[in-house]
Design a protein that fits this description.
Layout (H helix, E strand, L loop, with lengths): L1 H8 L8 H13 L1 H8 L9 E5 L9 H18 L6 E6 L5 H14 L3 E5 L5 H10 L4 E5 L8 E7 L10 H10 L15 E4 L1 H15 L11 E4 L9 H7 L5 E3 L25 H10 L3 E5 L6 E6 L5 E3 L2 H19 L5 E6 L6 H8 L2 E5 L3 H10 L4 E7 L3 E4 L8 H17 L4 H12 L1 E10 L2 H17 L4 E2 L2 E8 L4 E4 L5 E3 L8 E5 L4 E6 L5 E10 L7 H18 L4
Parallel strand pairs: 2-3, 2-4, 3-6, 7-8, 7-9, 12-13, 12-14
Antiparallel strand pairs: 1-5, 4-5, 9-10, 10-11, 14-15, 16-23, 17-18, 18-19, 18-21, 19-20, 21-22, 22-23
Helix pairs in contact: 2-3, 4-5, 4-7, 6-8, 8-9, 8-14, 11-14, 11-15
Protein name: Phospho-sugar mutase
GO molecular function, one term: phosphopentomutase activity
GO biological process, one term: carbohydrate metabolic process
């Protein structure tokens, strides 16, 4: 406790603002638990940035923790791009303090003689990614905590290609940050170096979004969409993009249209949660809409609900939408004429269904670690190849390479194009998905996410991963474990033959079990939340569309048995 108290007292020096010192003294005098949680560690600038609860202290998002990271980033940029006019673009979302924190970040950059383009109001994360290259910047920063609860905020850093930072930049930037004391932060802004941006960049981004996400789908006049921004940033882009692409029947959920960091109408502003889209689905039933789309606060994830075979609105998961979008893009590319250099991409915890899909179209399939920064890295590492599209199970998708992060704006348009076109041809988004199961195999996925908060929670998650490594599961639902892929040790081991293979992607704390019948279970601690996530995938042949319900029930039962067997339910 002495080290925590000493860390807190160091924030009582004259360098820190008076209100910060008052709050810290109150923690010291009256709230030992709050003091401990605020100072027991320093909030780490991880491989993509920072995300955490806002407040005072080293383990919180505030002016000083963000200032220190920005000072370290400034030092790194000046070292790498010595002699150049360095430029950085900054965007922020609807969260509490995002605008003031963005201004703080801009101040520190400008104090270090770096040119800053700062959005005048909240904007989407995909527009920030687009803007890095559009404005010829060396880096980009977005203030967002994605879909986390209201008390959170965060800070993500993008590199010159518009993708989030990856090795070696991430480690080198962290090295610069770790050298600094808080007193090394230069907060003295150079106002001449801060330029506010908005409409010109908006126009360029929306035009590019329409160009990449529109395929002249038929039936737009007869296609009804219900859209909700869940109080986030997508209200600044998606309605206009849909309008420009020719969609006239778009109903916006007005109660959720105003940006609001409290997210007053939902428990969580996460389109992965069915509850988040409940208001939009209710409206869709009232007006007979064909599709519901909702996006998270910074507009990189999207949730989609479409009418199933019974005519009811059904929320699809990220794997299903990813497969449908990728297949549609591949088909359009094929109609245009494949050049033989195409590739699609997804992540190690996403559906294995992407592999047979790629094989069917004769394109390269790259599997990367969780996170779109790794897909963006593939685009950068293989410039001779053409990136068609790709995504991950967590409700994110990237259409082409004009944005180098998950992009709910363009993906929303693409989803509408697929569904509108299918309806005009007498089919539906859902029926086309079932046809994919017939063509490529019926893969069914489930995610279980366990929250473990605080110091004890972090230890519990750590121990769970140790147990899965040291006492591996022998079988799942009666099928023997064939392979264990340990991405932390970079070793894949065949548990039947004993052979081993080297995993040729960067290390990550992920463990994947695969059985003889193709069932898969992945365990992965979250990098941005106090959670451990378990990803399940089961599969079966679907001989014809008429057997869909029967086979789906069998796969659902199999997943339920596995969850029960592993005591994760």
């Amino acid at each position: 406790m002495d080290s925590i108290l000493n860390a807190a007292k160091s924030w009582l020096s004259d360098f820190f603002d008076a209100d910060v010192k008052t709050e810290i003294q109150n923690l010291i005098d009256n709230d030992p638990d709050g003091l401990k949680d605020s100072f027991y560690k320093s909030m780490e600038f991880g491989t993509g940035g920072m995300r955490g609860i806002m407040g005072v202290g080293t383990n919180r998002i505030n002016k000083y923790t963000l200032g220190k990271s920005t000072q370290g980033l400034s030092n790194y940029l000046k070292k790498v791009y010595a002699g150049e006019e360095i430029k950085v673009v900054i965007a922020y979302d609807c969260r509490h303090n995002s605008d003031t924190l963005a201004k703080t970040v801009a101040n520190v950059l400008s104090a270090n003689s770096i040119k800053v383009f700062l959005f005048s109001e909240l904007r989407t994360t995909p527009e920030l990614s687009f803007s890095v290259r559009h404005l010829n910047c060396h880096a980009g920063i977005v203030l967002t905590a994605s879909h986390n609860p209201p008390e959170y905020n965060g800070y993500k850093v993008y590199w010159t290609d518009g993708g989030q930072i990856v090795p070696p930049q991430d480690g080198e930037i962290i090295g610069e940050i770790d050298k600094l004391a808080y007193e090394d932060i230069n907060f003295e802004a150079n106002a001449d170096l801060i330029e506010y941006i908005d409409k010109d960049v908006d126009e360029a981004f929306m035009s590019a979004s329409v160009a990449n996400g529109s395929f002249n789908a038929k039936g737009k006049d007869d296609f009804k969409i219900v859209f909700t921004s869940l109080h986030g940033t997508s209200i600044t882009a998606i309605p206009e993009v849909l309008k420009r692409a020719g969609y006239k029947n778009v109903t916006i959920i007005e109660e959720q249209a105003k940006p609001d960091g409290n997210f007053p109408t939902v428990k969580s502003p996460n389109p992965e949660e069915p509850e988040a889209l409940a208001m939009a689905i209710k409206k869709a039933e009232e007006i007979g809409a064909d599709m519901v789309i909702g996006t998270d606060p910074d507009s990189d994830r999207l949730g989609i609900a479409v009418r199933n075979l019974e005519g009811e609105m059904e929320l699809l998961n990220g794997n299903q939408t990813m497969v449908m979008m990728t297949k549609f893009l591949l088909q359009k590319r094929k109609e245009k004429g494949m050049e033989g250099n195409e590739f699609i991409a997804s992540t190690i915890v996403s559906t294995p269904m992407m592999s047979p899909l790629a094989k069917a179209y004769g394109v390269d399939y790259k599997i990367v670690l969780t996170g779109f920064k790794w897909i963006a890295k593939m685009i950068k590492d293989f410039p001779e190849q053409y990136f068609v599209g790709g995504g991950e199970e967590s409700f994110g998708f990237m259409v082409g390479d004009f944005v180098r992060d998950k992009d709910a704006v363009t993906a929303t348009l693409l989803a509408c194009e697929i569904a509108s076109d299918a309806k005009a041809k007498g089919s539906s988004f859902y029926k086309e998905l079932i046809q994919c199961y017939v063509d490529y195999g019926f893969y069914k996925e489930k995610l279980i996410s366990m929250t473990k908060k605080g110091i004890s929670g972090a230890e519990e998650i750590k121990q769970m991963m140790v147990d899965y490594r040291e006492n591996p599961i022998k079988e799942i639902d009666g099928s023997k474990i064939e392979w264990i892929h340990d991405y932390d040790s970079s070793v894949a081991k065949n548990m039947i033959t004993g052979e081993t293979e080297t995993i040729d992607i960067p290390k990550s704390n992920v463990l994947i079990y695969t059985t003889e019948d193709g069932t898969r279970m992945a365990a992965r601690p979250s990098g941005t939340e106090p959670k451990i996530k378990f990803y399940f995938s089961v599969n079966a042949e679907l001989g014809n569309a008429g057997d869909f319900e029967k086979v789906r029930k069998q796969l659902d039962q199999k997943v339920d048995r596995i969850v029960s067997e592993l005591k994760l339910g």
